[in-house]
Amino acid sequence: MAANEDDFKKVISHAKEFGFVFPSSEIYDGLSATYDYAQNGVELKNNIKKYWWMSMVQMHENIVGLDAAIFMHPTTWKASGHVDAFNDPLIDNKDSKKRYRADVLVEDHIEKIREKNNKDVAKAAKRFGDAFNEAEFRSTNGNVLRREEEIKKIEAQLSEVQNNEDLVAFKQLIDDLGIICPVSGSKNWTEIRQFNLMFGTELGSVAGDASTIYLRPETAQGIFVNYLNVQKTGRMKIPFGIAQIGKAFRNEIVARQFIFRMREFEQMEMQFFIQPGSQMKWYEYWKETRMKWHKALGFGDEYYRFHDHLKMAHYADAAADIEFKFPFGFKELEGIHSRTDFDLTQHEEFSGKKLRYFDPELNESYVPYVLETSIGVDRMFLAVLSTALKEEDLGEGKSRVVLNLPPALAPIKAAILPLVKKDGLPEKAREIMDVLKFDHNCMYEEKDTVGKRYRRQDAIGTPFCITVDHQTLEDNTVTIRDRETMEQERVAIDQLQSIIGDKVSMTKLLK
Ligand code: GAP
After folding, report:
1. In CATH, what is the architecture of 42-80+215-386?
2. Distance CA 321, CA 301 (A)
3. 104 CA → ligand 1 middle, Å
4. CATH topology of domain 87-196
5. Which one of 47, 163, 194, 303 is at 20 to 30 Å from 106 when CA atoms are compared?
């Protein structure tokens, strides 16, 4: 679907209507920035997680899994720097009373300038047709070059105020750029304040600072504190990785984009432990590997771009995002961070335990460096759902809503439909279901006309509809309808396993 707000609203209502995502505790009017995954949503989410897990743990001999607890010793978060530095710079508009992240206001301002350039490029492409050379146009057109310079200047200023943690200069930058509140249209801003994003709670019955524990704001620390346990018990040799999927919690102040930014969300993180000095090689390797993983889904290369960080998190010496073209524009989907030896060194210091690795190749002990890949399951879910959702014009005034999910990710792989609810067709359909269900998540449906049932399956992205009719009883054949082409083919029942298996297998994606 095209990039605009209406399309985004369609995605949200489709997610609700077809059992993908519901607002949390909806009967009490919901809880902001918290969502529940419904019957189809949980299947899609599990398939996304499976695709990631297989690509990390099953495809790499030197990557193993972990499932650490959400609660961790409170000192973990002192050591990691989250207690002192896991802050967002917030600013309020006094007229609309809306609260924003100051860095996001500036980034959105930059994006608007970039959009102007893209519009000029698109106009020129239309004017010059086949003869158009985009690279040449971008490097010679006066307006485009001027705006590029402007972007570079703002990015440098943003980076400087953030790195210096200079909130006064940061506010001045917003004033100087003339940024207005998207709601009130005014420039009537408060000062900028830092806000810590961690949720704290009490352990047991004792109140007070000593017993404050946190809901983890990232899963990564569970990996760091277990690094030596895994290395020793798994006899792992550097380079090796530890992968984990789990919940993380952040008290996000500005959380308005459905499941894009939530207070309770899920991360898929992998920490890759490497020799000090080799981090740039692995940084490039994981950037490329992760981009390939995304592109294998087949949505099109134009949906992805890298964004190199100007301001590093407190632990990183290089960082890039894989950004995805969501219905509301390009936004971060995944982060690839070179975390140096920051975390392990900090944990050594705070715990007093050595977290070193003896490298037989170098014949020396060191604290390994770490390369991290970190992606939000929910953001990945939104990327997949919003891009797969299409309204197709079928001609003659007819249309259909279809979820063009990669078959391996589809919640239901095949729907088994008896043509009518009599003459022994339901029984035959159930026989087929009873065979297929051992390998695939299938659905049996007998209500409504076959046409209506096809449409319902299209809307949840089911790759195949199998219709059982009177001929089935005679010769053990069924029709199998392909979601993408809507073409139907008559095949023998004993061919179904291999037809479905071939189409929905993860192997194609992973290769
Ligand atoms: N361990 C590194 C780390 O947590 P991050 O860039 O803060 O890095 C990684 O988060 C990924 O987690 C993001 O790229 C995004 O996909 C996801 N994520 C972060 N905050 C989120 C939120 N509030 N809601 C949903 N997903 C979020």
Report:
1. 2-Layer Sandwich (3.30)
2. 15
3. 15
4. Herpes Virus-1 (3.30.40)
5. 303
